[in-house]
Structure to design on (259 residues):
């Protein structure tokens, strides 16, 4: 009978700190209020540090200037709001990301030019509408996308020619219909389709000769009167067919109404 190989156990990689070097050795540790490998402020383990601060909120202020970035970032989650301002200039983006979520709205202007994109995205998501336009020229498309989603509809004009497709798509979906003519010649077909779906019926004539048949098809689905008649001669058969079908249905409806 072949001998069975001994069971191979995965090594325990749980970070363990040296309790002998801990300031709480004779207090919290002795009282069972912290635990090596589980609830520990000294270990370089975000999970252990977070568990420590959950139990000992008041101690977070002792670690605002700690040399370990993750200890500072986790401490920032538990600090009273009035103590957060010094951390606005913290050198680590993880700390500033926490602040972007937590600081009072009136402090957010201090972070609108932060070097970290995630910080600025959070700011764009929280900043009061009255100040949001200050971020419309951000260098990162994702920040501008958040701005486009939150700006009041009547203030979206400066983004109609944005370099990013997704930003312009959001603008096309939100800008007042009477202003959609500003985007009728956008170079993205998908955006022009949105424009054709939303713009005022009387303005559709400016898109009747669009180079893409799918855009013209959207036009013909909503066109009326002379424009609908004109599009029965469209060079694309599907567009022309839809125009004829709608014209015939319109004529039949008029006949029925006259009876």
């Amino acid at each position: 009978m072949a001998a069975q190989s001994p069971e191979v156990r995965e090594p325990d990689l749980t970070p363990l700190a040296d309790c002998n070097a801990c300031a709480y050795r004779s207090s919290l540790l002795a009282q069972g209020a912290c635990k090596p490998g589980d609830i520990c402020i000294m270990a370089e383990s975000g999970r252990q540090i977070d568990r420590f601060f959950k139990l000992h909120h008041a101690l977070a202020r002792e670690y605002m200037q700690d040399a370990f970035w993750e200890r500072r970032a986790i401490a920032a989650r538990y600090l009273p709001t009035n103590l957060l301002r010094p951390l606005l200039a913290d050198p680590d983006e993880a700390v500033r990301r926490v602040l972007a979520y937590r600081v009072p709205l009136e402090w957010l202007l201090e972070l609108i030019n932060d070097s970290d994109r995630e910080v600025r995205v959070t700011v764009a998501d929280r900043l009061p509408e009255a100040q949001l336009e200050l971020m419309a020229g951000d260098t990162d498309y994702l920040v501008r996308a958040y701005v486009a989603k939150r700006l009041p509809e009547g203030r979206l004009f400066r983004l109609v020619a944005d370099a990013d497709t997704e930003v312009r798509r959001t603008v096309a979906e939100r800008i007042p219909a009477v202003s959609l003519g500003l985007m009728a010649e956008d170079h993205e077909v998908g955006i022009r389709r949105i424009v054709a779906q939303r713009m005022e019926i009387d303005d559709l004539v400016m898109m009747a000769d669009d180079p893409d048949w799918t855009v013209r098809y959207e036009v013909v689905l909503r066109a009326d009167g002379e424009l609908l008649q004109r599009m029965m001669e469209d060079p694309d058969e599907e567009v022309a067919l839809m125009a004829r079908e709608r014209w015939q249905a319109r004529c039949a409806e008029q006949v029925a109404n006259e009876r």
Summary: The radius of gyration is 31 Å. The CA atoms of residues 73 and 95 lie 4 Å apart. The mean pLDDT is 92.
